[in-house]
Amino acid sequence: MTKGNITTQGFIDSATIHGAIAALSIGETNQISDWDYQSLLSATYLLLFNNIGIIHGPGYYAGASGPYSKVLSGLPFLEGFQFDKTKATRNTQFWLNRCPNALKVAWQSLISDDQFKNWQSNSIELFWIYHFKMFGSLFNEEYIPSISKLINCSEKELYSLHHASEDKKEVLNWLKETSSESEFARTAWTVSALIRGRFHEYLANSNNTHLISHPFRKFVERKLSGSEAANIHNSETYFTKIIIGSALLETNQDRRINTWIENINKARKAISLSSIALPHSSLDTDAESHAARAAKICGLPASPSIVHRAIDAASSIGLGLLFTVKLIPWTRILSPIAQQTYKHEKGKSLGEDITSLIFNNEKRYKKLASDVPGRIKCIIIK
Questions:
Q1: Each residue of 172-189: pLDDT tens digit?
Q2: Is 354:228 a contact under the CB 8 Å cutoff?
Q3: Residue 26 CB partners (closer than 8 Å, separation 6+)
């Protein structure tokens, strides 16, 4: 960290946005994984903050496709930031070469998780063809040597499979039928997506930015220390659920996604104008009233019956009663001198500032994506 370069942006991986889209696409069913419902909650809440963008992986990117393009069209600020990926790409390859067992452990933990099968199946069904259109293939060619060691498929076969995945016809065939090729393609796509989670960590770390990742990538996260966590204000919880729930009340995928985008934009505008207040309340009924009042000011569904239906719709998909934000700074890149510089310029320590990011009600939406860089996690409390 250099003097005068203290502030940062927050970045959310595209997998989290796709997870939110998946939850909105399926609607009020139990077919989607808890990971994607958590992504819907996390994305909705975090997109209310300033300076939240998207981090894509390394390599070719042709632009948004499918429902994701609809999100970017409605929320164009998401792709407003660009970083040099050279260092993160190099660090990822170094990690893969130096710590092959770490990737193996992460992979085994991922496929052993109860949420894995539903998440993988729905993600492939909903987004595979759009992933191909955005990135030109299904998985990263540079990760093939590491993928080969995990899935009992030779590098030669994987290079051939990668080339085949550049053909739209092949991708569509793999979606329709089960074969050894389609199974290897599914696995290679998944391993590649997991590795990109590590790439995102290196990119955020080296650029002093925040990072918000899809829950499936928790298995490749590095161990960090010095975390701070706090409950989100209960009125904020209800307000977030009104945003989600009113979208879920729509009758088809397109209308749910469009309503979700419109609700976020209306809420962001109201927050930027300081026209709504969402304080913590000792009574849940008061918190719900604050949220309903904020929804009315924003132009969201505001009648008591619709508000209750929206809250019930969000709660029915397993979003829990409360959630917390946990901040884990990139402490390893902050030398004692840098920390002293931070305290001198800001007048407080890293720990003090992390706490203030959460508890300062008036500035919380403006400050979460600034000041102390690190990993941001939204955790549902059921």
A1: 999 998 899 999 999 999
A2: yes
A3: 32, 122
